[in-house]
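User: Please predict the structure of the protein below. I'd like the answer in structure-token form so I can feed it into my own downstream comparison script.

Assistant: Understood. Taking the following sequence of 423 residues as input:
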Amino acid sequence: MITKRPRGTNDLLPAQTSRWQWVEEMVRKTSSSYGYQEIRTPMFEHTELFERGIGEATDIVEKEMYTFSDRGDRSITLRPEGTAPVVRAFLENKLYAQPLPAKLFYMGPMFRYERPQAGRYRQHTQFGVEALGSADPALDLEMITLPISVYQACGLEGFSVNINSIGCPQCRPAYREVLLQALRSVEDELCGSCRSRMERNPLRVLDCKVPNCRAATANVPAMVESLCGDCGDHFSVLTTLLDRLDIAYVNNPRLVRGFDYYTKTVFELTVPSLGAQDAVGGGGRYDGLVEECGGPSLPGVGFAVGIERLLLALEQQGNQDFPQSRLDGFVVHFGGATKSEAVALVHELRRSGLQIEMDYQDRSLKAQMKAANRLGVRWVAILGGDEWERRVLNVRWMDEGSASEVSLDRAAEVLLRAKEEQD
């Protein structure tokens, strides 16, 4: 019996990886154009990092983390998100001593034990960006425009921007009491999860997707009505900048995000065609996280995008224009001395920068031509006994349906020039 992959994971086969590589290239190009540099952190961290950073009362910490004890009896967790590890690396490697803000991006697998569904897996891939060391609302704007630029580069359409402000430690406590009082009046109408988290983290009740809970909390006071002067000014500057750039957005008072570290700005980008789980990315400001992780009091802001969700949205919109990698050529031989010559030729052509394949099963000419057709190569170079004696290749140009002879001594030069002209 064949062992199957764990539930909530996927194999990316060669036909799919070209799409991933293309999206990853768009991510890297766009992030670099905004001045962000790539950072890579371990796939597992000490559990305390996520308990302190994300918040012990969050669904992720309570229910979804892959946590285990290593051989040294240390509690280790596969990273469920990327921000806390980046902040840890920022502090441990003293990046705060360099000019700020530190502008970093990452891409890699995250792990959450949740119910698998379309575009949401227990091992999924996130692309994220973090800017550490500045409280400027212009950076909040940048965290919204950067993923928009990625989506536009990938050809995604029909996405919307939702924004909100959830205040700061100065103004949020007062709002918490106002919200809690409103929630207690409708407590009997809330689902079990909302009732259990209501006293610990009432803001999370606003994010519940259960229809009864949304109806029961439809008229609760909005956080923006309780913002302090600093938070109100910050949000006002952000909306003014969004208007200045003609970026359409929705003020969504129910948007709170799922992590405790967020302050002030939160935002989410959604694609309605994805259904109930329509988010393709989101983030916000986390001005207390660096200090919470043991560092100086430095502000931060960031976002994350699920690559699987982005690819799903592109596919649903009929965007099949993913570039496909294509082999340049296939060298056909007839065994014996021609095979030895073909091996040497393939090696030379690959060193010149061409992508080449050959037959390794000593198949017939007809079978080798079929294999070349299946691979979709640009040309087939036939090296038979007659060609070998005359030191030439019989090159069949597959797209044009024509053929020509090329000197073996000049094969790399001629075939490379032909590729450059076609490209």
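That's the full token string. Residues 50 and 84 are 7 Å apart (CA to CA).
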